[in-house]
Amino acid sequence: MRLNIYDLRVEYTQNPLGIDTLAPKFDWILDSTERSQVQTSYQILVSSNEENLANDEADMWVSGVVESDQSIQIVYQGKELQSSKTYFWKVRVWDKHKVATPWSQTAYWSMGLLDKREWKGQWIGAKKETLDQKEWENPELMPSAFLRKEFSVSKSIESATMYITALGLYELHLNNQKVGDAYFAPGWTDYNKRVQYQTYDVTNLLKDGENTIGTIVGTGWYAGHVGMLGTCVYGEQPYVLVQMNITYKDGSVEQVVTDQTWKTSVGPILYSDIIKGEYYDARLELDGWSTPGFNDSNWQQPLIKDSYDGEIVSQLDPPVRVTKNMTPIEVSKSPSSSTIFDMGQNMIGWAKLTVSGEEGTKITLRYAEMLERDGSLYTENLRRADPVDYYILSGHGVEQYEPHFTYHGFRYVEVICEKPEAILSLSIEGKVVHSDTPETGYFETSNEMVNQLYSNITWGQRGNFLSIPTDCPQRDERLGWTGDAQIFIRTASFNMDVARFFTKYVDDMVDAQLDSGAFTDVVPDGGWIDFKRRKYDKGETILRDVLHPIENWLTDGNPGWGDAGVVIPWTMYQVYGDKTVLVKHYEAMSKWIAYLEANSTDFLRPNDTVYGDWLSIGADTPKEVLSTAYFAYSVKLMAKIAHALDKKEDEKKYSNLFENIKISFNKAYITSDGKIKGDTQTVYVLALNMGLVFKEQKQLVASHLVDNIKKNDGHLSTGFLGVGYLLPVLTENGYTDVAYDLLNKDTFPSWLYSVKHGATTIWERWDGWTDHKGFQSAQMNSFNHYSLGSVGEWMFRYVAGIDVDSDIPGYKKIKIQPKPGGGLTYAKGEYQSVHGKIKSEWKIEKNEFTLKVSIPVNTEATVYMPGVGQNEDRTDVQLVENANSVTIYQVGSGEYEFVSKIG
């Protein structure tokens, strides 16, 4: 038996990591080909010294032999942990025969700064006179500041750890080397409440004698443009805070921190803004600016920020990194004779430029998702975003350029040379950038169009998971819309490991929660509520014809959006088995329920929502029906959360509240023949999915859903909120054939319509482009929006058949229940759960259905086979049922192959 350390829940960024929690958690994956070796007990050792741990000595925590099959989310229970200290741990387990494994390899984590008072530096930035430069005279687009500090090292170093954060964005350098591979640090938070910091081990970058720390600071979300909300939402200019702790071999400690002794200047980055792009003049480069001995006599003293009242916390979410490099698949000429590079994939990031030519030659890089009919870039849908980077050559041989604090959503890059004859060579490479959430899912079928749809779903996730789950990556928005996030999180969790990503985002949601208890539409708020109220008071429209006129524009807690504050934590618990997010935010979730209850009449929510079933097609779902359904759903989940946390009184309270809402919902909205007010696909889908239909009417209600689909010529009409539940509800109510028919549709509106027309990501609108109308209104027409890609959940749960048992979270107990159909001859799915990899692969040949499954060690699965199962002679397979056209088996970990007769 082999024991692998899988994931320390404390190991979030660079090693050693700064963790500012006193309760790290431990996970491990067991790997064995023998089903008998299932964990029954474990023992963990934690030591402050790696050498002692090698001798099985632990001075921090000896768990003892714990009788438990739990191998995830084990909470540290040892001695008090100290700031900046590194700790080492290992684990062994016992199988059901009471045989112990060898000790695992040693893993480690390091603590961060546990108290804000431990930060000894000052927040520094550039003074106004430093930022004012003649080369660029736009007060909203300030240059990026360069800051530096020289210091001496005179003794032998044991270790050196750098802690850094910014109100804005930073790039860190030490002795002429960029530190780390992350971008857009420290990430987007509500800076009035908290800012994240990062930790880097820089021991190997220091040298005897003189050393230099350098930082470049950009405006980012703090002082740059935020969506369509304007600039300087949080502050007037960016600042950085740095602290390096150097521990010498003689035991002494020295700190290098930001203070008035640093020097600052501006350089080649005339501006770098998330929404407005970057302007870089290579002639102004500061060669050697982060090396000792650089002449900074003309540099200025920094501006010192008086104070910062928010929390300074260790980064929770994965860093933003370059995860893929893309080579153009085609190069063409535009109508204006510029060069257009087709990357072959709608993506986010930027183009890396490699060029040589004359000094002072200006290169313009313009980005777009689509082309006009004449072959020029389609940029009208970007609104006030400027998808442009400018680069001015230094003339020093082959030059390479990548922007610093901006990103673009694009497939096409137009390169415009001010003087084409001055260019000797030029090429580009696409850099795909997003929060580095590891891929966990794989999905494939015999239908290439469906495979492309799955690819589009994953690329939509890559394109919008950057520090927060944004709605779109290209236009002047890029905001964290909560409704989009909650409907997509289950799909997202199949595709990638989003545990840490959404842990941070739930913190953001709670930071933005209003005193009333309402969770907001946009998180971080970024001034959204103030912005829409200000615009409303002035009688202005937000997005002109798209959002005007809208009733109830000022509603604070919009159904399906505000409910993300409950849906997301519950989904995280289901997928990852971690109760922490439920415990930490239980009060906030309870406040949301209290807000809903206080703003309801006779358990029915009013028609005061803004968005409804956003961007549905030809269907007008009554907002009060949708609102009440989501009210019930949040309450239903709160009852389950209370049960998980053993809050029996609350469980009873919320269960009773749900039943009261259900009764009122039926009286107000469901007729005796099973029709629901509005008669849209979404009202039926929500009522069935959220348990609001009494048993005797379920088939009637489901049949009306199917009738509605037939009336739409077999097409869907659901918007953002209905689409995620549409196919699961059909499948669960016996209409798998209708679900597959919707999946396979390639006529408008459908998922495959955009695929048929060359889409490589999920579009915001079903009609973003149609062959009969062309482009939809440019005021709101993104071609990289993940919401309608929530069908990915159904593809994993029902096509591949991989699902979690909702009563036993974290895939400790697994459901394998594929639902073949739609003309598919095979489907494959893999999912890297917290317990290990789960595989499900099926094929149909004539009337024989073959299913291969792989179940990780220390888990068990219930396998549902369609049709009549053939004799199974394995002793480790338990036949549960073989009737009613389904055969059910119970299995432990291992590899299995099942065969059944169908048809």
Automatic annotation (TrEMBL):
GO terms for molecular function: hydrolase activity. The keyword Hydrolase applies. It holds the Pfam family Bac_rhamnosid. Its EC number is 3.2.1.40. Residues 439-799 form the Alpha-L-rhamnosidase six-hairpin glycosidase domain. It catalyses: Hydrolysis of terminal non-reducing alpha-L-rhamnose residues in alpha-L-rhamnosides. Residues 155-324 form the Bacterial alpha-L-rhamnosidase N-terminal domain. Residues 806-870 form the Alpha-L-rhamnosidase C-terminal domain. InterPro entries: 6-hairpin_glycosidase_sf, 6hp_glycosidase-like_sf, Alpha_rhamnosid, Bac_rhamnosid6H, Bac_rhamnosid_C, Bac_rhamnosid_N, Ig-like_fold, Rhamnosid_concanavalin. Residues 333-434 form the Alpha-L-rhamnosidase concanavalin-like domain. It is an enzyme of class 3 (hydrolase). The keyword Hydrolase applies. SUPFAM superfamilies: Six-hairpin glycosidases. It comes from the Bacteria. Keywords: Hydrolase. PANTHER family: ALPHA-RHAMNOSIDASE (EUROFUNG), ALPHA-RHAMNOSIDASE (EUROFUNG)-RELATED. This is alpha-L-rhamnosidase. The lineage of its organism: Bacteria, Bacillati, Bacillota, Bacilli, Bacillales.
